[in-house]
Design a protein that fits this description.
By secondary structure, the chain is mainly alpha-helical. It contains 10 helices and no strands. Helix 8 packs across helix 9.
Length: about 270
């Protein structure tokens, strides 16, 4: 009993040490990229703010309402950019940690899912930056009352775009979630098709909660969410499709009777 407890404790400590090593490697990668991007922090923020600045009327600008904001906010942007650039390496470290505990068929499924989830999250961020931000900001500035100068604090702008980045990044993970639910047996593709109307309504509810209170951004989140759900169903059908020749087919009643008759004949022959 003591030997088993000692072995379990040693195994746990080994796994924790490996996890620490993986985390340190990931932090070092992010840190090195941050050091390289540090001199360009202000330019990175200007790039992030470009969709809003392009939508502001002539002479419009952003403001800083706190003393340290002009320094801290670009640093935050540089740090987050470093994490995004290092994300493939971070995901590899996560994969290297969990892979030894997976079966061969789980590894074949997990590796593509990790790569696809990273790619889809980045696609969600790109969709928000290149399509959603310009549309939303032009809509907001166009509907501002006459005589109102549209200006925003750079820190509040950063919080706003981060919220949308997360919302669209997570939204683009819907196909991965659907595939995992089907693959793990929690739900069938038939059930997913059956609840389509509820998902369609739920997509607009999610859009209303996680986007600004304007109809444009709500639609730009809800429609991709619904389409990605359909993509997840399609991918689930492909992945769950049995390999030709390997699918189990139950015997029909006639085939079952013939098998039973054959068993009885073999038993009689063996008795003789």
């Amino acid at each position: 009993m003591n030997d088993e407890l000692a072995g379990a404790t040693e195994s746990l400590i080994t796994h924790l040490l490996e996890l620490r090593t993986r985390l340190i490697r990931s932090m070092i990668a992010v840190g090195l990229i941050f050091v390289a991007l540090f001199p360009f922090a202000s330019k990175l923020y200007a790039l992030l703010a470009r969709p809003l600045l392009a939508a502001l009327p002539k002479g419009g600008q952003m403001i800083a309402t706190e003393v340290t904001t002009p320094f801290l906010v670009p640093m935050k942007v540089a740090m987050m950019t470093s994490f995004v650039i290092a994300l493939p390496y971070v995901m590899y470290q996560l994969w290297a940690f969990v892979a030894p505990g997976l079966y061969a068929h789980e590894k074949r499924l997990a590796a593509p899912l990790v790569a696809a989830s990273t790619f889809l999250f980045l696609c969600g961020m790109a969709f928000a930056y290149f399509l959603v931000f310009p549309t939303v900001f032009h809509f907001i500035t166009a509907t501002a009352p006459q005589g109102v100068a549209v200006m925003t604090d750079i820190n509040k702008y950063l919080d706003f775009v981060l919220t949308l980045f997360m919302a669209f990044g997570v939204t683009f993970e819907v196909p991965i979630a659907v595939v995992l639910l089907v693959r793990m047996g929690f739900v069938s593709t038939a059930k997913l098709k059956e609840i389509r109307p509820y998902v369609f309504v739920g997509a607009f509810v999610v859009g209303a909660v996680f986007t600004p209170p304007d109809i444009v951004s709500q639609f730009m989140l809800a429609i991709p969410l619904w389409l990605l759900y359909e993509l997840g169903i399609w991918a689930s059908v492909l992945i769950a499709r049995p390999v030709e020749g390997d699918a189990y087919q139950p015997l029909s009643e006639d085939e079952m009777e013939r098998e039973l008759d054959a068993i009885e004949v073999r038993q009689k022959n063996s008795g003789e």
